[in-house]
Amino acid sequence: MSLASTSFSQFEGAKPPIYRKLHATGLAISPAHVPHESCDLFCYSILLCSMVPCSVLGDSITSPLTDRRPDTQKASEPDYWKKFPSDHPFSIRPEDAQVALPPKLGTAANESLPHDPEHVHPHLHLLVPTTAGTRGACRTVTSAMILGYPPPTLIGYGHRKPGATELELTVDRITRIRDYLKNKRIVKDHDFVLIVDAQDTFFQLPPRVLVERFQNIVRGNNERFKRKYGYAAVEKPDGSRPELIQKYSQRVVFGASKLCYHALKDEPGCVTVPESTLPPDVYGWKTDAHPDGHLNRPRWLNPGAVIGQAADLRIIYDEVLRLMAQRHTSHSDYQALTQMFGRQEVIRELERLRTVNKVKEWVYKLLGISDAVEIEGISVRLEAGHRYEYGIGVDYESQLFFNQILSRNDLEWIEFSNITTTSHLQGQFGVPREHRLLLPEDIAALPSPFDQTSPSTERSAAPSFNSTLDNLPHPEQHSWSNVSLATNPHSASVPVLLHLNGDPKLRNGWWEKMWFFPSARALLRRYVRSAHDFDAAQSALLGGQDWWDMRGGRGGLWTDDENWVTISEVCQGQERDLFDDDLGPWGKENGDPDAPVYNQFGNLIKGKATEEEAAKKKKEKEEEREKNNKKKE
């Protein structure tokens, strides 16, 4: 089993959290007394009875724990699930969706592509909010293209607002994202949408890994939520037997941060959110206790990267805009999302406490294994009938998104084929119970990142194949195990993307460490050559071959105004920051076919030039001839 699919409680030799918590109670207990975390209530009651008289515990713990069922008692307590709308308007669960997957990297334009003209399967959309082709935005979209993502959609591109306040720019950005999600002609409810910060995001792994990991995270958490929150009985209009549905579920995943939004440190968004799934000592004995926060386990929402289905994200951004209208601060979207996450968890905890077995809860708290979140002393205003449930969760273990803030030392670039490095890396980072890191199975199953189509299939493709410009490492000799991958030794994860929201000075150095950087131009040329470009983008709308984003196309980008722009239009002049290979402007590596060519008399004989340019060149040639004639004299 790879570390990508292994829970930390399964690590050999790991002590469950109960061990540390029992010492805090003053009870004398040795590791031999601690049962496996899968131990149920009956098992724990035996352990507890060895230390506390069982008469104190009552009869409720003498039978094994069973799943929660809808509560029919305690009529005096409000039913929080019903009082605050908690069912999701879109019934299709993201973990059950079969996303239209792309061909492998290197597939030529005339080879098979997913054919889904009826949009039966969910498609993937990549949204990148930026008004211009900045260095950061160009690195974001270039890395996404190299990895084979669908054409990024630039939100707000070309809509600069000189003189606008930070708040006005934020409102415009969020409104455009929301409006895109509402465009039913382009986006269907079941489509997957990935939204990333434009200026500081580097993609590292292909979209197939992103989607599968997202679904695995959601699936695992939802199984846990069934046990934690139980089910609700929903009456049917025809009066037949009520339907049992899961009360709460996860549907959207944001990045996790070690730092909570500073203005809300005493509010639910910072206090009541669940604990991290990482071990409580993953950073050593000062985990979660170091004053500057760099040893905190990530557990707070960061809005820099999010993935979910369009229908779920739509109601989230509707609420963000509503809250932003109430809080006029420059980072009000961050503040609004933090507030939404916190209130969601307050409602969930109130409903859990309403239906939980009180004796079981007391025992679990005593043993330090309770699912409770901290709501004591929290003051929050809740409006009956208002939705606070959004299916929001965060990526605690950086399987999808790595946030750099307070975490610059949590990442190391390694080749997994180097056994010496992988065997000692966790020990070097002070990770308790260190193990040799293995390349996650979902990455190992991928074809070589340097797969290349044969030149014979690309004669009609642009850019045309060039043995020098398109030279890539041999795919049979270079797999994912021997490229340098950014790895988090503490969580044993290889993130899909890196969100460099920490020190801006690190971005140039980290960009050059990315596995694709030495071959970035050739890999981007491969991506462009693999697609139909604008022709495919247009034909997809007419029911032709399409790709993930239903509009199709590769080699360019969409704007939220539904305009198609090429990478050279957006990122002209950014080649040194993207490639640093001295091969010239993108698309003109072999010279510009329209570049003007002059004869010895300064006359234009080929290419294009304005009258002023031609006249200037002719004058230069005349002056040069006169100068040469004087030398001869």
TrEMBL record:
Compositional bias segments (type: Basic and acidic residues): 609-627
Superkingdom of origin: Eukaryota
Region annotation Disordered: where it falls in the sequence: 449-468, 609-633
Residue ranges with Polar residues bias: 450-468
Name recorded for this polypeptide: Uncharacterized protein
Lineage summary: Eukaryota, Fungi, Dikarya, Ascomycota, Pezizomycotina
